[in-house]
Structure formats: C-alpha cells, structure tokens
Amino acid sequence: MSATAVDIAADVRAGRRSALDVVEVALAAIAARDGELNAFNTVTADQARAAAAGIDARVVAGEDVGPLAGVPVALKDNLCTRGVPTTCSSKILAGWKPPYDATVVGRLLAAGAIMVGKTNLDEFAMGSSTENSAFGPTRNPHDPTKVPGGSSGGSAAAVAAGFVPLSLGSDTGGSIRQPAALCGVVGLKPTYGRVSRYGLVAFASSLDQIGPFAATVADAAACYDAIAGWDAFDSTSIPEPLEPTSAALGRGVQGLRVGVVSEMTSDAMGIAPDVLARVREAADALAAAGATVTEVSIPACVYGLSAYYLIAPAEASSNLARFDGVRFGLRVDAPTTAEMQRATRTAGFGPEVKRRIMLGTYALSAGYYDAYYGKAQRVRRLILEDFERAYGEVDVLLSPTSPTTAFPLGAKTTDPLTMYLNDVCTIPSNLAGHPALSVPFGTGSDGLPVGVQLMGPALSEALLFQVGAVLEASRS
Amino acid sequence: MPARISRDDVAHVARLALLELTEDELERYTEQLGAILEHAEDVAALDLGDVVPLAHPLPLHNVFRDDEPGAALDRDEVLAEAPAAESGRFRVPAILGEEP
Amino acid sequence: MSETTWETVIGLEVHAELATRTKLFSGALNHFGSEPNTNVDPVSLGLPGSLPVLNRTAVELAIRVGLALHCEIRPSVFARKNYFYPDMPKDFQISQYDQPIDLGGWLELPEGKRIGITRAHLEEDTGKNTHVGGSGRIGGADYSLIDYNRAGVPLLEIVSEPDLRSADEARAYVEELRAILVAIGASDGKMEEGSLRVDCNVSVRRPGEPFGTRCEIKNVNSLRSLGRAVDYETRRQIDLIEAGEKIRQETRHWDENAGRTTAGRSKENSEDYRYFPEPDLVPVVPDPAWIEEIRAALPRLPAERRHDLAMAAGLASTDTPVIVAVDRGADAMALEAIAAGADAVRVLTHIEHNLAVEGADALGGSTLAALVAMETSGALTATQAKTVLAELVTLAASGVQGDPAAVAAAKGFEAMDTGALDAAVDAVIAANAEEWERFKAGDPKERGKLTGFFVGQVMKSTKGQADGKAVTAVLLSRAG
C-alpha cells in the first residue's frame, strides 16, 4: 500500500476516497502475498468491510470519523479483540475468542481505523525472529529466505509488504524496534506507562509496552497519538496529559544535543560493521542538520542483557501460569485436575516458552531470588541512573537498533543465547522504561534494511519523532 | 554465586511450573539454562548491596479506583470459551489434595 | 497425664471479607449468594490481558481495621504468591507479603487481656469449588465445578501473636475481633457465609518453656468449631508428646463431623511460592492526612462502649448483659433509657432477653425508659411488660413511636390490687389441696417445683395479670 495513513485518513474524511475501497486494496494485497509471508494469523475480511462501510456512511452523514478514518490496521495477535481469535501464536490459546477488547484496540477503532487482521508473533512474544510460532514463521518481505525479526514480526512484515500502513506490536526487550529495523519500517516503543497494557497478553509486565509500526515517522506519530494516554484500567498508566506528537515533526534538530552510545558502538557488543557505518552516517546527518553530536557512555548497559533474561522470564513464569486448561484455551484431558493442567501446559507451550518459564521459575525460587531476580532489579536501577546522567548532557541518544540485518530462517534457532544477543541494544530502554524509536537508515552490505535507534528520557516521544523525521528526510 | 543449575534443579522447576519433561528435554534444558545463567553470572557477581532494587520504571504510587461497579461479563460468552462447563460453572476433573 | 501441667499456645489468622461493593482489583460485584459466575469480569477470571486496579475503599477499610487494632499504618506493596490451584484464576494470588499495610497492634479481650496483632494485610479471595459425585467431598469426587464469583473479593488477613492460651480465649478473641469489624463497618462478620474464616496455629508446652512445634488448623468455620478444634488438637499433641513422639509441623484439617483434625497431604513444592513484587500494581503510601481523616471518623469501639455502659449501669464491663447489649448494638438505647431514669438492670434484662428481635433498635431509649418505669412502679408485671414491649417493637418497626401506658391500657393490663391477688391465690390453694400440703411440708426441692406450679395456676386464672413475684410472696405468707 503506497498511500500513507495520514493521506488515507485525509482522503476518507474529505469523502475523496471510500474506506471500503481502501480496505479492499489492503485485503487484495494480503490475499496476493501473505500465503508466502505468513504475516497474518487471522484476516478479518468481512468484519473489516462492514466497519469500512460504517465509516463511509458516517462520512456521508457529515460526522467526524476520527483522525485515522478508514486506515487499515493490523494487530499483533497478543492484543485482545472481542470475538476475534487471539492466539499469541500458541497452541495453548488457538481459537480463543476474548470477551473484551484491549484498550488500544478500542482507541484505534474510535479513531476510525479498521482492523484487517491479527499478526503472527513469536509465541507469547518470546523471540527475535517470529520463528517460535505455532502457526509457522513469518518471512521478511525484503527477502523471504530471511526472518522479519521478532517478536512482532508479523506486524512489521505487514507494513513492510505494503499490506497496511499501520500496525501495532508489543515491545518487551526490542520486539517492536528490532523487527522494524529488519523490515525497514519505523517502530516505536513508547515510555512505559504511556500506552495502556490492558488487553495485551502479558509477557513481562514491568517491561511490556504496545507501540506502532508505520512506513513513515509521521504515520507512526499519528498512530501513537491515537493510542497513547491515561487509562483507568491500567494501574501503571501515566496520568500526565498527552500533547499531540505530530505537531513536533517539522521542528528539525538545530541546537539539539545527540549522544552516540559508546558501549553500543564498540566491538564488544558484536555490532556488524555495515550496521555501525549506517549509525555513523546517521550521526553525521543529524550534525549536518544542526545538531551537536558527542559520544556518551551508559556503562551499566552492558549488564542489560543479563538483567533482562532474569527479570523477563521471572515475570513471564508467573504471567503464564494461568494457561492451565481450566477457564479458556486448550485442555488435554486427564483423570485429575493437576494432571490435566500439566498435560495441557506440556502440550500447549512451545520449547522457547517452556525454557523461559523454567528459567524464570528458577530465578524466583527460594534460595535464588536475591542472587538473580533481586540482583537484576538493582542492575535495573543502575541502568536507569546511567541514562538519567546521560540525559543531563544530551537530549537524545543514538545507537544501532539490531546488531545485524535480517538473518536467514533457522540461523539462530539452535542456540537460545545467540538469539538473545539480538536485543542487546534495545533492552536497556525497556529496563529504564524510556521511549525508543527505530528508524530505517539505508541498507547493509547484503542490501537489507538497517535501522538506527533513537532513545530519549521518559515522555520524550515527540522529540524522538522530531529527530526521526530529520533522519528520514536525510535519506530521501 | 549460585552453583551451576543441575538436572535436579531443572526437574524441580518443571514440577513447580507444571511442565512435564522427557529425559532428552531434561538434558537439553539443563544445558541451555546453564548457559544462559552462566551469561547472567556477570550480574549475579556484582556487589550492589547499597543499590535500591528498581521493581518498576515508574515512580507512581497510590493508584486507586473508586468502589463503583463496572461492567460484568456475559456468563454464556465466557463459558462458551471454557474447555468444559456445567450448571453455569467451569468443570474440571477431580481435584486431589487440599488448597495450599 | 494431666493437662494442668501443659499450656496451650494459640495464634490465629483471621481472614475477613471486606464490606466493599466491588472486588479488590476490579468493578465486579462483591456479593454473596449471586448466581454462579455472574459477578465476574476479565480481572476476576484472570483472563489473559486483564490488569488489577486497587479498590480505594478496600484500602480505607484496611486502614480502619489497623487503627481499631492500634496498628501502625505503613506503606505497603503487593506481591504475587505463585501456586497452582483451579479456584485461583491467575494461578497466583495477589497479597501483601513483606510489606503489609497494618503492622504491630493489639486487641483487648473483654476480660482485659491484651492479644498482640502481628500484622494485617490485604489479599484477594479465591473462587469456590463444588465437588460432584463420590461423597461430595474432595477426596472421592468424580469432578468439580468452579464458581469465580468470590474470586477477587477483598480479604484482610489479620494475624495475631501466639498470645492466646485456651479455646475460650481463642473464641473470645474472634468474637471481639468480629465485633470490632462489624462496628467499624469493615466486614459483615458473617461466619456462616464465610465472611470470617479462621486458621489456628496450635502448640503445647510446659509453662515457662519455649514454644512447642505448631500445627496450623484449617477449615474452622464457626466459633463452636474453633473451640472444639483447639481442644482436640491440644489433646492430640499432649498425647503424642507424652507417648514420646514428636509433633510434626504441618497443616491439619478440622473435620467437623468426625470432631477431629487430620493431616493435610504434605505436598512437596507447596512451600516455594516464589513471591515477587506484583508489577501490575504500584505501592500504596497512605497520606498521613488521609489516615487522620479515617481515624477521626472511626466510631467508638466495642471495648469503649462496654466501658461506657458498665459505668452508667453500675456493672462491670465484663458482665454478660453489658457485653450482649454492646454486641447487639443496643447500648445507645440502653444509655438513653438509663439517663432517662430507668432501672439499669431491668433495661439490660429487656435488651438481653426480650429485644433480640428484628427492628428492636427502632424502639428508642425514652420509650424503653417509660416502660421500665411502669414496671418499677408496679403498674405492670414482668409478663405484662414483655407483652407491651413486643407490641411497642412492632409499632416502632412500622415507624410509630408507641406510648407504653396507652398500649398497656389497650391490652387491659391493670395492676391487680392486693385483695384480688390474695383471693386468686386462695382459690388455687383450695383447688389443689394435695399439692398445697406438700408445699407446706417445706422440702426445699419440692417447694421450688411447686412454686412454679402454683404461680402457673394463678397466672392462668388471672389471665396473666398477676405478678409472679407477688404470687410467690402470698404463697409463702400463707404457708406460714
């Protein structure tokens, strides 16, 4: 789909184009190529057509149909949608139809957007390649022999393939930004608490955030503006009022201070040379546009990966206890409830999910809490303090998003630790709760997209979009 | 610093998490979890006694809701998604053992 | 063996359901007796994606209880207690663990002994399993049905120090705690509906020695069960020790029908709850101004009210009529009647015996005082007063403040004059010569029985107008 979300909404609102036409184009594109890419778990064609007809009728009636009127959106399949299967790409939830909508779903629909389907992910958002799906891997639209990244690979691929201009993902350790980078699209992880998590099937509650994928920075900002803001159903929701970030887009970077994170550009982090070269070029582009660029150190971020792989599985082991065959989803019958629960969980969860549940159970268990979970929480504090110190010196930080471009399917599935290293640059923002944006910036030596990451202090989304728009413009 | 995770440890956490492992899986997970935890030793080895744990990135406290009824779910819609139901209740096989 | 050489040591954990309209973490109704699974929402069912949001009123009630139990009100944090059980929708319970809201207080038993309160913390209740088939009990059931209406109902777990020394004290503690919870509006205190549930930790020791190994007894659902369970468990432990065996620390189950405790299945793993701070909730840091506001609005507590009433009535605060009046919430009416000049003992007697009925609190102290005054002056007999009182309560329930004199007159109650009473007694004596001879013979036991007989006969012949005490006096004077 070549039109941007902002353009589509303007045309639909003005009656220049029907929402139904927009949706048919999206459905046709999905029908033509998703057999190959497998970005979608469910396509809600009939429902989308009905919603589009509703929008069109309201336009005719002269109603305000919202800032995203008629924009087709794809939702990661870990966002609850009433009456529409929400599977988390897991056998244990196959076919489950939630009786309620996630807050973000309600907000997108209220803004006039039209859901066209639910997208594939690594089971329960645990992975960096969308290969850990019970419904088969998603492929990278730029090269179908390569992964799209993960865990929100389906949502990234759906935008990259031009199926939809906007999609939502969730990001616990990089699950929006890394696939955005690998698929060559824009992806934002908002400030923790800025977007309601109500209705997002939890992976790691203190790290999860929902955010947008888009082909352009402006579209990502428009989507963020529609979904962000306080929600009474999420205790960790930030009460501060929301300023529309779209307004910040044209402001440029004159006088802004940009810090390149030295730890994330050193050899020790295993960043590929072609990716590093793009980061240097991005820094140069910002300097050329009037920003001051310096090197900044976040010393504790080298412990980020370890801390993350203690905290996230610990929370996940508890969050995923409820999948027990009693109230919803899969049940494998057995003579007693305990045996039924064990059989259900054993059959229903894939290997990566089991691995993390056991890792987290171990990290929380008696005798190890202080050494693992407790220690990781302290490291988390150190990382936050390092970031805060850095934001005393600079306005935004720049780094690679992913250490490499998209890798072949199967390349990293045998060794979990190798896969985990994909998240080395993205995890620190989750631990600190800060926003981070991945913006496409050229290609690697293999011709595949490279993304650069902009990080800022809490609630600096507008600033990230502002800087991201300058990077975007510098490439065109 | 904790000792390397053993086969028995893995069997123990699998029991706690209600997961059943084959001998092969037990072997494989023991090795994989060992490697991940070994990587985490850099953190486990840090001396951070004076650092206050950060459970949460937000400095929020006292988030309350008023004691006002909200929307209830439709029982039929809920039970339609249940693996088994009877008489308006969720049905499960025999429960052995008392509540902890 | 002899029990006098042993001391029972008891600590209680009382789970009180808080009297909120909605659940601890969501807007589903907190209501007993609804159709199964109708008071549920995504949070109560632990549906994927649902998140808890804390009920302010539950926190306020927890603070009220803390203040009433002289606790320190502290910043608190919710944690997850992880274990699998099908009536627990998320397979973890949200509970305050190492940072409870109420810490370190005490409760004074009516007889004056102070029992330490270790802590009180907020947590969510579980759903309810119904076992089908077999004997209907958990062991032999074919399958079970689960209702999650109760899941997420706010509980305050109030933990006492091991300061109780007998079944009587344990019962008195629960009664007093219940009275406090009801008085301050924190809970309806209905044990029969499970609003108040008690787990008791029991151990025995020789006085002066360190605490023995304790057993936790669950499923104690009434005050009667509590007393029986403690007595049984005490006996069991003493017998074991005296037989040279050791007490194993374990959870035991009270079987009301069998009248004994049985060992729970000892489950490996059950100890490892993997507590960690609940990441979906934020800390509760009660504002001191809020705490003071709650303190200022606290009603007078049962102990203070017993003291007030005892002073006014010239009784001890441990006297049964005083305890009963306060327990029934009738102390204000009693105080008003006493202040209006009514005889305190008669006032409290009516409250204890004749006003334990629905709507009695609408009667009003001045009406009660007027009635008691008629009784004291001899214008009404005790029996007549009781009848008039019943009528007054009926009137009060329908919103009418009746006049005792008018009600008495309408019933035709007039005090019998002495001549008429003497005549009535003489007539009964004449009609029952044989009984009268035995009465006169003076055997105290026989005379006691026959007094009842003669008073009854006179009452019958006077259609209840005679005063029982006056009849007895005439009988005694006639017998010489």
Kindly provide the radius of gyration of chain C, computed on alpha-carbon positions and rounded to a whole number of angstroms.
28 Å
Number of strands of chain A: 11
Uncertain segments of chain C are none
Q: Which oligomeric form is depicted?
A: heterotrimer
Largest interface by Cβ-Cβ < 8 Å: A-B, 72 and 53 residues
> How far apart lie the N and C ends of chain C?
55 Å
Decide which structural class fits the backbone of chain C: alpha+beta
- Strand sequence of the main sheet of chain A, in spatial order? 1-3-2-4-6-5-10-11-9-7-8
Distance between the termini of chain A: 19 Å
CATH architecture of the largest domain in chain A: Alpha-Beta Complex
What structural keywords apply?
heterotrimer, A: 476 residues, alpha/beta, Amidase signature (AS) enzymes, 2 domains, eleven-stranded mixed beta sheet, 15 helices, 11 strands, C: 480 residues, alpha+beta, Arc Repressor Mutant, subunit A, nine-stranded mixed beta sheet, three-stranded antiparallel beta sheet, 15 strands, 39% helix, 18% strand, elongated
